[in-house]
Every structure is written in structure tokens, then in C-alpha cells.
Specification:
By secondary structure, the chain is α/β, with parallel strands linked by helices. The protein has a single domain (28-165), classed as Lipoprotein like domain (Double Stranded RNA Binding Domain, 2-Layer Sandwich). 35% of the residues lie in helices and 32% in strands. Strands 1, 2, 3, 4, 5 and 6 form a six-stranded mixed β-sheet that branches. A hairpin with a 5-residue loop joins strand 4 (80-96) and strand 5 (102-117). The relative contact order is 0.18.
Length: 168
């Protein structure tokens, strides 16, 4: 009986300590051919402007590519080039209640991105990438804005990384 309990205890500890994780951040880059990357400054052209958004987005872009590739960031004429603009940052009321007030609000961020690989004959990629988060309309937007922006930036930068560096 004691052996069974000990066996079950060891088995449960082993099962709880094992963790499966995966990441979609796998770059398919020929580093013999491609050595540098230029990331242009993404200017905030959204009608609704939140001042820290532009800087946070640009820093996260550089961090993502620095952490996940061996490409050297350059100020111009890179082997690969990524440019674009933040074109949307908007709040949309959702789930209108019987009193004509929205119970939820959606924050949406949209980026227009252009990617060019100067070392191959591949055509330039141009995409509009969006992400959104919904929050309760009872919540003061200023109290959740920074957290939501962090989530939106992370999702959009992940999408840009996968669209430009992953060879699916």
C-alpha cells in the first residue's frame, strides 16, 4: 500500500513538473545571404493619438527582431526592410444594453506594414494587421489602457514577425 502511494506521489510530481510550451517565433532566414535588417520608424497616423503608443511599438519591434534573429539592425539599406505606420487606434462600443449604454468597449489597433527582402526576387509584402481587446465599459479606460496597449503591441509585433521571418 505504501509503495502504491509513493508511486502515485512521484508520478503526480513528475506530471505536474512537466510543461509543454510552443512558440510560433521561428525564423527561417538564410544567414549566409541575409545579415542586416532595417526597421523604419512606424509613425502614429491614427486619428485618435495616444502619445506613448508610437515609442512603445517601435521599441517592441526592435526588441522582437533582436531577440529572435541574428540579423544586425542598421539605420538604412538593410538586406531586409520593414516599414509602416500605425493607422488605427480606436474605441468601439459593443453589447448595447436596454438602457442604450454599451456594457463593453473594444480597443482596436491597426498597423500598415511593408516588408522587402533585397536579397531575393520575392515581391514586397504589404499588409494591414489589427488586434483588439474588449473591456467592461464600467472600467475607466485610463486605468486599463497601458495594459491593453501592451497586449495589442505584442500581438501585432508577433504577427509582423511571423509574416516576415517565418517560412510557413
Amino acid at each position: 500500500m505504501m509503495k502504491k502511494i509513493l508511486f502515485l506521489l512521484i508520478l503526480s510530481v513528475m506530471a505536474s513538473s512537466c510543461r509543454i510550451s510552443y512558440s510560433l517565433r521561428s525564423a527561417s532566414i538564410n544567414y549566409d545571404l541575409t545579415k542586416t535588417l532595417y526597421i523604419g520608424h512606424f509613425v502614429n497616423q491614427a486619428p485618435l493619438v495616444y502619445p506613448p503608443l508610437e515609442q512603445r511599438f517601435n521599441e517592441e519591434m526592435k526588441d522582437m527582431f533582436t531577440r529572435n534573429t541574428r540579423l544586425q539592425l542598421v539605420n538604412q539599406n538593410g538586406d531586409m526592410e520593414i516599414e509602416g505606420e500605425i493607422v488605427g487606434y480606436e474605441l468601439t462600443p459593443l453589447a448595447v444594453q436596454e438602457d442604450a449604454f454599451a456594457s463593453e468597449t473594444r480597443l482596436t489597433m491597426t498597423v500598415r506594414m511593408r516588408f522587402r527582402n533585397n536579397k531575393t526576387d520575392a515581391p514586397e509584402i504589404e499588409e494591414r494587421i489589427s488586434a483588439n481587446r474588449t473591456f467592461s465599459s464600467n472600467t475607466v479606460f485610463d486605468s486599463v489602457q497601458d495594459q491593453l496597449i501592451g497586449e495589442l503591441i505584442e500581438e501585432i509585433v508577433d504577427q509582423i514577425f511571423n509574416a516576415t521571418m517565418a517560412n510557413w
